[in-house]
Design brief:
The complex is a heterodimer of chains A (445) and B (423).
Chain A: H1 2-18, E1 22-26, E2 30-39, E3 45-54, E4 57-63, E5 75-78, E6 83-86, E7 88-93, H2 109-116, H3 140-143, H4 148-155, E8 159-164, E9 171-174, E10 176-179, H5 185-188, E11 189-191, E12 196-199, H6 211-234, H7 247-256, E13 262-265, H8 272-282, E14 287-289, E15 305-308, H9 318-321, H10 324-345, E16 350-352, H11 359-371, H12 376-383, H13 385-391, E17 407-411, E18 422-427, E19 430-434
Parallel strand pairs in A: 2-5, 2-6, 7-8, 12-13, 13-14, 14-15, 15-16
Antiparallel strand pairs in A: 1-19, 2-3, 3-4, 6-17, 8-10, 9-12, 10-11, 17-18, 18-19
Helix pairs in contact in A: 6-7, 6-8, 10-11
Chain B: H1 4-22, E1 30-38, E2 44-53, E3 56-61, E4 71-74, E5 79-82, E6 84-89, H2 119-125, E7 129-134, E8 142-145, E9 147-150, H3 157-160, E10 168-172, H4 188-218, H5 234-243, E11 248-253, H6 256-269, E12 273-278, H7 286-291, E13 295-298, H8 316-323, E14 327-329, H9 334-337, H10 340-350, H11 355-360, H12 364-369, E15 387-390, E16 401-406, E17 409-413
Parallel strand pairs in B: 1-4, 1-5, 6-7, 10-11, 11-12, 12-13, 13-14
Antiparallel strand pairs in B: 1-2, 2-3, 5-15, 7-9, 8-10, 15-16, 16-17
Helix pairs in contact in B: 4-5, 4-6
Classes of the chains: A alpha/beta (445), B alpha/beta (423).
Chain lengths: 445, 423
């Protein structure tokens, strides 16, 4: 009897620990989803559909009447009344990264005084790149730290893939594309190093402290990279030049020569002209991270624009400086309308939450866009196939099609409807079941 | 229904008014009739008409009959002056205006951070200002490249930037660049040394390229690819632009001795100083300024706000005016910019100027030190139609600007401004 009691207590304890709203089941080899409403790659909905999954990939999709009788699957899910979306993709997520620890050397008082009055330095010899917050050698993949709780929260909003973007520095390092299928770093990474993240946000103390200084520095950096490349070729004739080897310039060269791509965060309208100049003068085709005013003058939309979906007008704009009434109108009507028109015009745009983990505002803003005339299909594309193309993972993600990875978000109603929630996520060979959406707090992007 | 109709009419008028205020009228020809026109070559012309065609001043005459139906404004004796120019300002820049992190930063361009949404652009239009020299700050001895903009509110930065103006580089002497954050330079001598050192480096850089090119010529063609070229340096190339006359200097300075020192360096290295900014002790070196054709861009009666700004007297401007030095007024702050015409009025008292000479200090003289005198700064046939219409004497503190026109387009109209409560 005592043993029985102990066993039942252990069972209850295990149940409390392992079923906190989400259960991950290692699915068997094959799964069949039936009776669901499916979002097709052509932007239409198809009711009474099935999706057959085998080995973590979508084997086939179709209407229920096309399903052959007698096919055997390890698992079957009847999802009548549920909506199946391709798992959403966040093309710029600043998270899942271990913080860098700043090492501050111990200094005695005397040394501190000396530091206050440094020796005159040569104006034309600049400090190393990292000291100016150009972290060229960094990479999100090196700092990656997948987290079970965060993964679950993000998945609870239908996201399956993220492009993790280093958040510090003018050059933050390379971004990394991960799948939320696993909490193990090695399993999660899809593309280890993709874009070189550049933020047009000046430093506080080291050069450059002005936005214009960033442009000047990047232009000088390109010249330095080309010079360095030349010197490397000439080292055979001039052995003394071997000492001048700089690995950072080697890393940057493919980005300046167009073999790889920068990902530039613009931040506001005033920096758009500067971005245009950089694109022209450096001869690059960067992916651009936009801002609420992007509709006024889109810079090179053909290169790919990621739009953090926000309707807050810039601080010093006419909408923000001429009374509460206009500001409210701008947030609720003018900006959603302009951005809805912008999405209609540029169908390759990708959208992203306005701040890291601020998914609630994101979906609220999506509803506002649809209310202002943006098509639902365009919005879904902007969250699925468009970012997939941008990140180069459209071969296996971004839509529910045979041959692609099984990355499917199951909503109880259309995702933009009130109180819509994710009930299940199919990611490769795993099935995640949700009881209710997780609560989360927004942060700064 | 009777009560609704007037309400609807008022609403329609209000909506139209707001629309017009936010969206300036498209480029058009314009006829200003029966005004008091302040010209510098023909004096004050009372009861004259002014015809604008394609953004330029086409004709100034009595009773002009326009060749076709164009927008006509009857001024009924109101004053028409050239659009006011602020020769030194930091308006419309987003973010930090000082690249204070290093002492020599001529490679940075202030036009890169131009913010066309800056609300001060619009408020400055309400004071008749049409053009401004938007500058880098004075935190380092050699700052960045300034930008000249016309205040075309609602237009893109590219449409605002005035490409015909001289390229100008900001330098700074005195208290601002020295002793910042306990680093070199700590003295005015140090500031001078940094500027000279920059020029020495630039000359050396040019020499390296010259030697490389010569060596390349002397080397057999098969071995040329083995030569190591000098490293490209945009910072030094910007300094070389000043030596080659592609860019002029606008230098922040207060004291006479350091100003003379920079004139010495300009002669030694061959760069042109267009104007000294603030220069409180200009009256001490009036002859030198005149001899080197260097203008000054100053406040009229603002001093003693820091140690080096103590030895100033507005009466010194009389001496400078008599010596023939080009005097331009500036606001330096965007708030003061819309009241520059009142500042110019003080020149009558302190500098003993007549109305037209006083007016020149906020128009033609400013255009001169910005390299724009051939295009704007005065009401002359062929020049840009940059105009301001005042309801009274243009230098009186009792007057208000009613209309601001840039290249024929109306950018400010007090009658149509929904935010101006007193009309």
């Amino acid at each position: 009897m005592k043993r029985c009691k102990k066993a039942s207590l252990l069972f209850i304890l295990l149940a409390v620990v392992f079923v906190p709203g989400l259960t991950a089941v290692d699915a068997a080899e094959s799964t069949l989803i039936t009776n669901a409403t499916l979002f097709l790659p052509d932007g239409t909905w198809q009711a009474n559909s099935f999706v057959a999954i085998n080995g973590g990939k979508i084997q086939k999709t179709g209407r229920m009447n096309q399903l052959q009788p007698g096919e055997i699957y390890d698992n079957r899910y009847d999802l009548k009344g549920k909506y199946l979306y391709p798992a959403f993709i966040d093309p710029m997520y600043k998270g899942f990264m271990a913080e860098y620890k700043l090492v501050t050397p111990k200094t005695d008082k005397k040394k501190k005084e000396e530091e206050l009055r440094p020796e005159p330095t040569d104006t034309f010899v600049r400090p190393p790149l990292a000291k100016r917050n150009f972290f060229v050698t960094r990479s999100a993949v090196k700092r990656l730290k997948m987290d079970k709780d965060k993964t679950r929260k993000i998945m609870g909003y239908g996201f399956g893939f993220l492009n993790i973007m280093p958040g510090d520095g003018i050059i933050g390092g390379t971004t990394t594309v991960v799948s939320l299928v696993s909490n193990e770093n090695a399993e999660a990474v899809l593309v280890p190093e993709l874009f070189m993240a550049v933020a047009l946000k000046p430093n506080r103390d080291h050069y450059p402290v002005t936005p214009a200084g960033i442009a000047a520095q990047l232009i000088q950096l390109k010249a330095d990279c080309l010079y360095h490349q030349k010197i490397k070729k000439l080292q055979f004739y001039h052995p003394s030049q071997r000492e001048t080897y700089k690995p950072e310039l080697d890393i940057l060269l493919p980005y300046f020569s167009g073999k790889k791509r920068f990902m530039i965060s613009i931040y506001d309208y005033s920096r758009q002209r500067m971005t245009e100049r950089l694109i022209h003068d450096l001869g690059i085709a960067p992916v651009l991270v936009g801002h609420p005013d992007i509709w006024r003058r889109p810079v090179a939309p053909e290169n790919g624009i990621i739009l953090p979906l926000d309707f807050v007008p810039p601080e010093r704009s006419k909408y923000a400086t001429q009374g509460e009434k206009l500001l409210k109108e701008a947030k609720e009507k003018i900006y959603p309308q302009k951005l809805a028109d912008f999405l209609k015009k540029h169908k390759t745009i990708s959208i992203s939450p306005p701040r890291v983990n601020d998914h609630k505002t994101f979906f609220k803003n999506i509803s506002a866009l649809i209310k202002q005339g943006a098509s639902e299909a365009d919005i879904i594309d902007a969250m699925t196939i468009n970012p997939a193309k941008l990140l180069g993972i459209d071969r296996f993600a971004g839509s529910i099609e045979a041959g692609k990875l099984a990355a499917i978000a199951v909503f109880d109603k259309k995702f933009n409807e009130k109180d819509a929630a994710v009930c299940m996520m199919f990611l490769e060979n795993k099935v995640f079941q949700f009881k209710e959406p997780e609560k989360e707090t927004g942060g700064d992007r | 229904m009777k009560t609704i109709k007037p309400f609807l009419t008022v609403m329609a008028v209000l909506i139209c008014t707001a629309f017009l205020a936010v969206h300036p009228a498209a480029a058009q020809d314009l006829l200003l009739k029966n005004g008091v026109i302040y010209t510098f070559d023909k004096g004050v012309l009372k009861g004259y008409d002014l015809l604008v065609q394609d953004g330029k001043i086409a004709r100034i005459d009595k009773k002009i009959t326009p060749p076709k139906k164009i927008k006509t404004i009857n001024l009924s004796g109101k004053s028409v002056i050239p659009g006011i120019i602020d020769s030194h300002n930091h308006i419309g820049l987003a973010g930090q205006i000082n690249e204070y992190s290093e002492t020599v930063t001529p490679e940075i361009l202030m036009q890169d951070q131009l913010n066309p949404d800056h609300p001060r652009i619009y408020t400055s239009l309400s004071g008749g200002v049409t053009m401004t020299h938007t500058m880098h700050g004075s935190a380092n001895p050699i700052g960045g490249e300034n930008v000249t903009i016309k205040l075309k509110w609602g237009k893109t930065p590219d449409e605002m930037i005035e490409k015909r103006a001289w390229r100008s580089l900001k330098m700074a002497l005195g208290e601002n660049p020295k002793g910042r954050r306990g680093t070199y330079p700590e003295t005015r001598m140090g500031v001078s040394d940094i500027i000279e050192n920059a020029y020495l480096e630039a000359v050396d850089y040019r020499e390296k390229w010259r030697q490389f090119k010569k060596k390349k010529q002397d080397t057999p063609e098969t071995d040329r690819h083995k030569l190591i070229p000098p490293q490209k340096n945009y910072r030094l190339e910007a300094i070389l632009d000043t030596i080659d006359g592609k860019m002029v200097i606008r230098c922040h300075s207060y004291r006479a001795e350091e100003t003379l020192d920079l004139i010495r360096l300009s002669k030694k290295y061959g760069f042109k100083i267009a104007a000294f900014e603030h220069i409180h002790q200009a009256y001490r070196i009036a002859d030198e300024l005149k001899a080197h054709n260097i203008g000054i861009s100053i406040f009229i009666d603002s001093w003693n706000y820091k140690a080096e700004a103590s030895e100033f007297t507005p009466w010194g401007l009389r001496l400078l005016h008599e010596k023939g030095v080009t005097i331009a007024l500036n606001s330096d702050t965007s708030e003061k910019m819309r009241r520059l015409y009142m500042e110019a009025g003080k020149m009558r008292r302190y500098a003993g100027m007549n109305d037209l000479d006083a007016l020149k200090t906020i128009t033609l003289n400013c255009a001169q030190i910005m390299g724009m005198a051939d295009h704007t700064g005065s009401i002359e046939v062929g020049k840009d139609a940059d105009l301001a219409v005042f309801d009274g004497h243009p230098l009186s503190s009792m007057s208000k600007c009613l209309l601001t026109v840039i290249e024929g387009e109306i950018y400010f109209d007090r009658a149509k401004d929904p935010f101006v409560k007193v009309k």
